[in-house]
Design brief:
Elements lengths: L2 E3 L14 H12 L14 H7 L2 H14 L2 E5 L6 H10 L9 E5 L5 H11 L4 E6 L6 H18 L7 E5 L5 H9 L3 E3 L13 H9 L4 H14 L8 H14 L4 E6 L5 H15 L7 E6 L8 H6 L4 E8 L26 H18 L4 E6 L4 H22 L10 H11 L6
Parallel strand pairs: 2-3, 2-4, 4-5, 5-6, 7-8, 7-9, 9-10
Antiparallel strand pairs: 1-10
Length: 425
Amino acid sequence: MVKVDTTGAAAFFGGNGPDYEAAAKAHETLATKSGKGADFTGWGELPRRIKETELDAICAAAEKIRGRSQALIVVGIGGSYLGARGAIELLKPLPGEGDPKVFFVGNGLSPDYLCDVLRQLGDKDFDVNVISKSGTTLEPAVSFRIFRELLIKKYGDKADEHIFATTDARRGALKAQADEKGWPCFVVPDDVGGRFSVLSAVGLLPMAVAGIDVRRVIDAAIREFDALDLRSSENPAWQYAAARQNLYNAGKTVELLACYEPSFRFMAEWWKQLYGESEGKDGIGIFPASVEFTADLHSMGQYIQAGRRDLMETVVRFTKCRDEYKIPFDAADADGLNYVANRDLADVCRVAADAVKAAHIDGGVPNMVVEVEERNEEGFASLVCFFEMACAISGYMSGVNPFDQPGVEAYKKNMFRMLGKPGAK
């Protein structure tokens, strides 16, 4: 289970400290489905539901792809790709022997990025997993059209056998296409918003193709959600949600999510969407940002240490590293590093993290630590469940609907009108 340490933030708390009564009320609102957006709270039951319904089919499809293709093209944007990409980069940053390369497209409109992917794909055998609730969102729809054409050129009348759709169970343009063409279909659940969907087929199929044991992920998620139903101030989701809301009310309006693992980068991107879309509305909300330590200490470190004091910092730490590597001894010691010779690099990293924490607290930045044991399937599942639960509780504590995103549509209306889409105003 995730552990949270808020002692590095305690000196910055306003009033009487974190409001666990408000956290309890928010948790009850979530559990009883009595709050705003209650129709989109199915993510809490999703691991059990997916295990009983689609998990076997997801694993079978993944094995089929792994057995015949060298690459999987995942077409999706926002919650339709960030969770899967975060999982794959965290757990499988380098494809193992026999693992297809997973490419993510449809998350932008850059021709240069698209052509770079096409060059990397080359003449590899590939499958496509198109992920969209509607099938009409511009960015993924454009990419899907392009890669369908490539499939037809490569496989002819067998092209449709290489397409897997993850979409609405009953309606929408993509669902209609899938039914007409006979593409295997997986479900984007009606009661789960995109940013909460990583533990559905949305995230699980690409993860399984990449070689991640998604059965382990789902079993761990079931255990984690059960543990996070604790109605007590000992619940780490309460601790995190209540602490960040207290700090926000005390003037800390920007939250930096930091990690000392470069492979965490897209997990941070997933977290930014989760919290930004859930809390940033009605003119309020903590602004979610991320940094990669120790690299960003040499670029953003100055600002964090001595810039505007509206920052709070949350650091994700893994108790155990996957590997050990001892720093070598050098008889000449020309670089003056023999004082750390024969020490494990992970130990040096831990010391650096402790030093950074102390410096940032001294500089006026409250610090919270979110800790899981290992960078594996269980650790990933624990982080997803924890951040989702804490996000919902934090959103309800702030008074917003954590499960809508009305502001996302604003740019689309302008874009469709400017592109000349029929009927656009």
